[in-house]
Amino acid sequence: MVRQHGRSARRHAHGGKHGLSRARLRRQGNRSPDGQRAGGAFGHSRLGLRHPGAHPTGRACRQFEPRGRHRRDAVRGKTGSSEAVSSTRKLLLTNGAVVVAAVVLDQLIKYVVVSTMALGEAIPIFPFLALLHARNTGIAFSMFADVGPLGLAILASVVLVAVMILWVKTPPERKLTHFALAIVTGGAIGNLIDRLSLGYVVDYVYFHTPAFSFAIFNLADSFISVGAFLIILDELILDPLRQRRTRRRRSID
Questions:
Q1: Torsion angle of the four alpha carbons 172, 173, 175, 181, in this order, in degrees rounded to the nearest 10
Q2: Residue 149 domain flag
Q3: How many domains is the chain built from?
Q4: Is residue 45 part of a domain?
Q5: pLDDT at 132
Q6: What segments bear the compositional bias annotation Basic residues (predicted)?
Q7: Please, what's the largest Cα pairwise distance for the chain?
Q8: String of b and e for 196-207 (b: at least 16 CB within 10 Å)?
């Protein structure tokens, strides 16, 4: 009894020398600097995350890492975001190419008409269609001819900016609307180039019948008209159909 009591006293004295017993030192060694036990509340979670806890020496710990299904979801999320960026970039490049093609084609035809036909000259193609070299001081289909070149240039610029804003706000999945806005933009730029460089727009397409004569227009006007029609078609008919199909698929799933 005396020996055991002496050993116990020596162990207690050894622990008291440092102010803590060995068991207490081990417990403190398993705690993180902020008081949380390693592998405790932050060691595991229901989401399958693992955290090694704070190291007793104060070294930095690894961050939370997803495991299992959550790791697959994280990888899919990164892949989906990269695919969305790639799709948006491809859409921008395609629409930009459409705009450039529309402007180049419009300006090329106008150059051929101006360089090969005298002003007022007409070349019949069909009984109802002819090429007629004319100058338009108005906007599309000779409207607002009394506004003046500067006023029409400002009006065309405002319309072009409005179209660009609408284009930016259009969802990427509405590809027909994007194409329509691209040809509208190309047509507006083509006519704006004429107006700023010449003070008028070169027209050359002339529809007529013995009883009716339509306004003379050009390819840029056609781009604007067809694009506006496609936008209305997609907005009023095609997009509601897409939304209805999407709701139907979700209800089935």
A1: -40
A2: yes
A3: 1
A4: no
A5: 94
A6: 1-29
A7: 134
A8: eeeebbbbbbbe
Give me the numbers of helices (H) and strands (E) for the chain, helices first please.
7, 3
Q: Name the most confidently modeled range: 21-35, 39-53, 75-89, 193-207.
A: 193-207
- In whole angstroms, how far apart are CA 74 and each of 32, 70, 83, 96? 28, 6, 14, 33
- Check residue 190 and give its pLDDT: 93
Kind of pairing, strands 201-207 and 122-126? unpaired
Band of residue 221 on the pLDDT scale cut at 50, 70, 90: very high
Q: Tell me, yes or no, whether 143 lies in a domain.
A: yes
User: Which of 39-43, 104-108, 121-125 comes out lowest in average pLDDT?
Assistant: 39-43
Query: 65 forms bridges with which residues in the sheet?
Result: 50
Give the span between the Cα atoms of 139 and 192, in whole angstroms.
10
Nearest to 182 by CA among 127, 72, 105: 105
- Whether residue 77 lies inside any domain: the answer is no
Q: What range does the domain containing 149 cover? A: 96-252
Report, as residue numbers or ranges, the catalytic residues: 203, 221
Tokens of residue 97, six digits: 């190419």
